[in-house]
Amino acid sequence: MNRPLRPADTSFAHLIRQKNLIDGQWVGADDGSSFDVTDPATGEVVATVPNAGTDETRRAIDAAHAAFPAYSTMPLGQRVALMRKLHDAILDNLEPMAAMMTAEQGKPLAEARAEVASSAAYVLWFAEEARRTDGAVIPSPVAGRKLMTTRHPVGVVAAITPWNFPSSMLARKLGPALAAGCTVIVKPASATPLSALVWGHLAEQCGFPPGVVNIVTGSARAIGAEITSNPKVRKITFTGSTEIGKQLLAEASGTVKRMSMELGGNAPFIVFDDADLDAAIDGAIIAKFRNAGQTCVCTNRLFVQAGIYDRFVERFAARVSALKVAPGNEDGAEQGPLVDTQALDKIEELVADALSKGGDLVAGGAPHARGGLFYQPTVIAGATPDMRVTTEEIFGPVAPVYRFETESDVIASANDTEYGLACYAYTRDLARMFRLQDQLEYGLIGINEVLIVMPEIPFGGLKESGLGKEGSWQGINDYLETKYTCIGGL
Ligand code: NAP
């Protein structure tokens, strides 16, 4: 029996299954245990979901394994039609899915709507890419032989997703997996499992056969250990912290699984003297404060050239101070709450550290008067390399600003990190743009633009930010194996 939802949630109550989806059945944890999903803006319980562990995960893997032969050989046209239905179902439910995401995650409703729309776009993109998973005929150097390659789904895929984008991170994994003909088990973040459960519900309604999509919520350690050790899982696709990603890589080595990793970032945002200052400030606001600074591609370090440094800091701080901090479902909300108390504590520590090392507080710097998990949008000028914000992923609404003198200095500083996910630069100098493209060690480079992610592009980090690409024509490759066949004696 679903527990009744709070009255404010009636817009999405019909979508929520407070159960796990295993082999086409909606089930609780074996021992009946569960945990609450709370709204970070209010602390209220939004829903209660199963606290599953090893046995439930093994059954979900068995179900995906059993469903694989039929699903992977389903005629392509039929598979594409299912994907298109899923795309339509997501768009048909955009408003309730967005409201639900704001309730479980806290982001402003406008951002939640954009995320749901983007999720649908990924499904459609991969539905189309499914038609292009072709092989090749290789000219043979010797007589009487035909050499060919064919491509095949890797098998059972386990997808582990984070709390900051509960829907779109899933779309980038479920989209290519289902398009390639793989069956899937999903373990969403415990803070935000509802979006994934809705995906399960919609996949079921669209007619994906039982066992093709399985969703398990609960103990990360137990579910993760089963996923990494079970030989039936042929691929793991993970988005989350670099720390957990490394742990999964080590644990999965015993069964040599295919691994895709979308991990942490430490994005530099560079403003040169010749930049369009208005555009740079607009870009910095989005790149820093979207989702309250809790995105992997969020600006972590703002580098501003000496000639415009003072003007930038003054105008940026004024804009940041004017951001509307409010629950995500309030009209005009620009920054919602942080995800949990650990996140708030970490932000307070990072700000205290920066100020103790000489940072100049020019906006915010304290918990917000709204209380709870709300923190003031914050700018710290005069940032220096010895501050923790320079090397740690901030994951909150705090913008440290560093002054720099030359292009070569700032490129060296920008690259001085083990991360290599996203970076941004504002300049009008075309030759410099190409130097930046060559020299910045990042998988995603935004020049005079910060909203750079869409299904058409290969999203992925360099260095310790990850392995593999999500989106673009490359995104489906990680879900396919290439076989080579030689027919001789012809
Ligand atoms: P996280 O702590 O690494 O958790 C990510 C997922 O892994 C969650 O589902 C979590 O489950 C699960 N998990 C934790 N420990 C596990 C274990 N031992 N075995 C298996 N699964 C385990 O990261 P997060 O705090 O949710 O997300 C923030 C991080 O994600 C940031 O570092 C951010 O940069 C990164 N991120 C990267 C991208 C990208 O595309 N590169 C995108 C978004 C976020 P529980 O929730 O149950 O602990």
Give every kind of bound small molecule, once each: NADP nicotinamide-adenine-dinucleotide phosphate
Q: Please mark out the parts with pLDDT under 50 across 5 or more consecutive residues, or reply none.
A: 1-8
What is the percent of helical residues? 25-40%
First-last Cα distance: 64 Å
Shape category: globular
Largest sheet: 7 strands, mixed
Give the radius of gyration: 23 Å
Strand line-up across the major sheet: 14-15-16-13-12-18-19
Number of helices: 15
What is the average per-residue confidence, as pLDDT, rounded to a whole number?
96
By helix and strand content, what is the structural category?
alpha/beta
Task: Give the SSE map.
Layout: H1 10-13, E1 20-22, E2 25-27, E3 34-38, E4 45-50, H2 54-72, H3 76-92, H4 94-105, H5 109-129, E5 136-138, E6 146-153, E7 156-160, H6 168-180, E8 183-187, H7 194-206, E9 213-215, H8 220-229, E10 233-239, H9 242-252, E11 258-262, E12 267-271, H10 277-289, E13 299-305, H11 306-321, H12 341-356, E14 360-363, E15 378-381, H13 388-391, E16 398-404, H14 407-415, E17 419-420, E18 422-426, H15 430-439, E19 444-447, E20 462-463, E21 466-467, E22 480-487
Parallel strand pairs: 7-8, 7-10, 8-9, 10-11, 12-13, 12-18, 13-16, 15-16, 18-19
Antiparallel strand pairs: 1-2, 3-4, 5-6, 6-22, 11-21, 14-15, 17-20
Bound molecules: NADP nicotinamide-adenine-dinucleotide phosphate.
What can you see in these coordinates?
The structure is a single chain. This protein has helices at residues 10-13, 54-72, 76-92, 94-105, 109-129, 168-180, 194-206, 220-229, 242-252, 277-289, 306-321, 341-356, 388-391, 407-415, 430-439, and strands spanning 20-22, 25-27, 34-38, 45-50, 136-138, 146-153, 156-160, 183-187, 213-215, 233-239, 258-262, 267-271, 299-305, 360-363, 378-381, 398-404, 419-420, 422-426, 444-447, 462-463, 466-467, 480-487. The chain has a 7-stranded mixed β-sheet with strand order 14-15-16-13-12-18-19, sandwiched between helices. Strands 9-8-7-10-11-21 form a 6-stranded mixed β-sheet, with helices on both faces. The protein starts with 9 loop residues before the first helix and ends with a strand. Helix content is 38%, strand content 21%. By secondary structure, it is α/β, with parallel strands linked by helices. Helix 7 links the parallel strand 8 and strand 9. Bound molecules: NADP nicotinamide-adenine-dinucleotide phosphate (NAP). NADP nicotinamide-adenine-dinucleotide phosphate binds next to helix 8 and helix 9.
